[in-house]
Hints:
Blueprint: H1 24-39, H2 41-59, H3 65-88, H4 100-141, H5 143-173, H6 175-182, H7 186-199, H8 201-219, H9 226-245
Amino acid sequence: MTHTPSRPAGHYHPQPEPGTVSPAHALQWLATGWRLFIQAPGVWLLQTLIFILILSALGFVPFIGWAAAPVAFPVLVAGLVAGADAQARGEALRVDHLFEGIRRHAGNLLIVGGFHLLGALLAAIIAAAIGGSAVLTGMLVGAFAGMGLAAGGVMFGVLVFTLLWSLLMMALWFAPALVMLQRVAPLDAMKCSAKACFGNLLTFIVLAIMLYVLAWVAMLPAGLGIFVLVPVLAGALHAAWRDTFAPPLALTPPEQPLE
């Protein structure tokens, strides 16, 4: 009989299979996020302030600021989700939960951030190429026909960018939680996330519409609503991950870091 070696401690978990969730879950997730927020509003507000300050500071780094913030974003999101997970397990939320992604899975989360940056650049380049070629063609044609061609091309470029950006967001939605809480490999996490969103497309369209409305509402009081929206989103993301993947290891203590 051939001996099968045991799985090493740092081995990635296999890709979890997403389940089916109904559109009604979208409202439940947001309600869960609000409930977690009101359990520890002071800590969540401080976490959100640090979250915003870090991303803003990274954006001002000379030469690489435009790339640093998108790459770091999933790392910080993973920390927010780790805090929501701790609350869901009955633990007290701490400010330093925000840095759990750095402590436990920094390398893998930075890889997800790299895909975030590359995907956004690719979407922008493709859209710009479509819009730019349409404008150039319109200039060559001239007159009203050329203006119409240019305008139509720019609108098509915007549509293409929106579509590609939506696909990227689907791949990124669950990726930080899957890497952080289930030790899924970065690229596999993005594949799982996209699969889950496509498999429950109506549910996530409903959620996206709700988030769009909430984002506008959060901007009304001088943008201060963002300090509530970010914690609610973190809790909603954790609840969505739990209901969509329902992993058997979701509530177990965290494993040792890979790095």
